[in-house]
């Protein structure tokens, strides 16, 4: 009920904004999120810790070589951090009472805590109390994309770490995989992101896996509260998924590749899957229900080269990396990321 009330409020706010500036016009919405943030800069650590980015990449390369699933997991980790209270590493904070972001339902199955802490320890050895956990999360996500044959884009750094982490915020700020297009655009608009950021960042689902519990109920067995399959889902693909995901098992932890064609290669096959009604989540299918996002899906599905997607992705994830950041004298630089909040 709290989430529903908040979404209703957001719809009203966004509707008012649309009436003023026609935010659904692509020429307008492209301009909304791209404003630079004071305190963030490419090469922020060049003088204080010049080896910082190379060290993160080296550690990420080692981690991915050992476990190819950890790259996509750390990309998801950035989403969970930045969409809740901004990119401030609040996802790393620990509550003894079980009320931190990591305790929230949307954080179920999230991986990357130990890996971010490991990279932080390496940076503390090299440059004590210099590189924030928030920046490590963003750099690790960039390198996860790069090590999956995606672009290695420039990353703005200079973030500081937050001191607050609340389960309530994660419950309300992270769009569930069952979201429809109106809800997705509302969530993203509330964070200062436009329709293009939404459709481009959804392309992150070109790598990684998801648990059956995150999609099977509404896509395979209980569509809109009725017994049966989501009619928009490709029937052959649904049959494959039903072989892996058990009906009636709410906590099914079976892992399914989000992009079966190339699950660990950052490419355009995600958009081809979505166009063919083979997107894993309702939120993937929803991209076909909006004229702007649908047109982008079509263009990427037909593209001979990923160059446009790669350039767009660098811009969109940079926009996300600017959400509600702490810089200057705000926040802190911790020696360890997993500090207690209570």
UniProtKB/TrEMBL annotation:
Q: Could you tell me the EC number(s) of this protein?
A: 1.11.1.7
Q: Which cysteines are joined by disulfide bonds?
A: 49-127, 82-87, 133-337, 212-245
Residues annotated to bind heme b: 205
Its Gene Ontology cellular component terms are: extracellular region
Site described as Transition state stabilizer, located at 76
What does the entry give for GO biological process?
Answer: hydrogen peroxide catabolic process; response to oxidative stress
Please give the InterPro entries that the UniProt record associates with this protein.
Haem_peroxidase (IPR002016), Haem_peroxidase_sf (IPR010255), Peroxidase_pln (IPR000823), Peroxidases_heam-ligand_BS (IPR019793), Secretory_peroxidase (IPR033905)
Q: Name one Pfam family in it.
A: peroxidase
> What is the protein named?
Peroxidase
Could you tell me which species this protein originates from?
Answer: Zea mays (Maize)
């Amino acid at each position: 009920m709290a989430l529903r009330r908040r979404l209703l409020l957001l719809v009203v706010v966004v509707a008012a904004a649309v009436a003023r500036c026609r935010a659904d016009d692509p020429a307008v919405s492209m301009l909304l999120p791209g404003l630079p943030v004071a305190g963030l800069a490419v090469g922020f650590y060049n003088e204080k810790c010049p080896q910082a980015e190379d060290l993160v990449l080296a550690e990420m390369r080692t981690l991915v070589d050992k476990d190819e699933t950890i790259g996509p997991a750390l990309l998801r980790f950035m989403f969970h951090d930045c969409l809740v209270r901004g990119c401030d590493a609040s996802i790393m904070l620990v509550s003894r009472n079980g009320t931190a972001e990591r305790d929230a339902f949307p954080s179920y199955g999230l991986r990357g805590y130990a890996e971010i802490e490991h990279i932080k320890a390496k940076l503390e050895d090299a440059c004590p109390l210099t590189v924030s956990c928030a920046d490590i999360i963003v750099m690790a996500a960039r390198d996860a994309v790069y090590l999956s044959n995606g672009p290695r884009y420039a990353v703005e750094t200079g973030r500081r770490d937050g001191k607050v982490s609340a389960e309530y915020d994660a419950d309300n700020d992270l769009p569930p995989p069952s979201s429809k297009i109106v809800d997705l655009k509302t969530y993203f608009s509330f964070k200062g992101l436009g329709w293009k950021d939404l459709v481009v960042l959804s392309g992150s689902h070109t790598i990684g896996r998801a648990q059956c519990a995150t999609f099977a109920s509404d896509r395979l067995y209980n569509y809109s509260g009725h017994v049966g399959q989501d009619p928009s889902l490709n029937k052959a693909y649904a049959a494959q998924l039903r072989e892996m995901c058990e009906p009636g098992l709410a906590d099914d932890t079976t892992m399914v590749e989000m992009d079966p064609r190339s699950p660990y290669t950052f490419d355009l096959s995600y958009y081809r899957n979505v166009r063919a009604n083979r997107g894993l989540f309702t939120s993937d299918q929803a991209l076909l229900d909006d004229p702007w996002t649908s047109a982008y899906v079509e263009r990427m599905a037909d593209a001979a080269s990923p160059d446009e997607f790669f350039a767009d992705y660098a811009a969109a994830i940079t926009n996300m990396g600017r959400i509600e950041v702490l810089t200057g004298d705000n926040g802190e630089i911790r020696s360890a990321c997993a500090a207690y909040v209570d």
